[in-house]
From TrEMBL:
It comes from Candidatus Scalindua brodae. Residues 68-184 form the Methyltransferase domain. SUPFAM superfamilies: S-adenosyl-L-methionine-dependent methyltransferases. It comes from the Bacteria. This is Methyltransferase domain-containing protein. Pfam families: Methyltransf_31 (PF13847).
Amino acid sequence: MVKNKMPLVMLKTLLFLVLFLPLFSSYISAQTRDPGELFPPDKIFLLEEPRDWQNTEEIMDRLHLGAGDIVADIGAGSGYFTVPLASRVGDKGLVFAEDIQIEMVNYISKKVEALELKNVRVIFGKPEDPSLLDNFFDLVFLANTYHELETPFLMLENIKKDLRYSGRLAIIDWDPAKQSPFGPPIEEKVPENTVINELERAGFELIEKHNFMPYHYFLVFRKKSY
Ligand SMILES: C[S@@+](CC[C@H](N)C(=O)[O-])C[C@H]1O[C@@H](n2cnc3c(N)ncnc32)[C@H](O)[C@@H]1O
């Protein structure tokens, strides 16, 4: 009896592996894609240098923010984008500036205090979870941060929960297909297609692609409606 059952069990196991291994392996490989180095806090002054090459006002215009919108700036660093985001959403809006390095969080807190920005909240998050509020955000914004994410899929699951039904996720990051005189090493840059594939697998769909940036891609997603 046992002798006869063995081949069937093996066959079922084999069938299972053939059918499901590709799914697991792509999930695992995306989840464990080598992340870039975390931006070193002792170089925070570099994040404060003016970036003609990043055209902040053009980025802000293309985000189509309205007064009263609620935005999360994930991986906010020195708060370079937090300030213009806060100005766009106005007094009735809110910007949550989040980072996982305490030095960045302290730096932004001081900046927010010095500039008397009443509509900014500073959050010390976890690598897999920005620790925000569910179903709360009109826009989640990640600039120069996606390539540093240690667990992109867990992060995206949490972002999905935090976004409102009509909320958008904007990702701006270094494009390895565009040569740049500065930025992270090329092997740390994540290709645009990888980002789009990872986002699609995580349940997002691409709704806008902006091509004006010389060293970056700028992608906007929303949650897929099933
Ligand atoms: C290169 S800086 C970019 C800062 C800012 N967005 C900008 O463009 O000026 C990347 C920031 O992302 C933060 N970071 C990396 N992984 C993160 C994660 N999983 N969650 C939140 N922040 C993260 C780093 O600590 C760092 O401050």
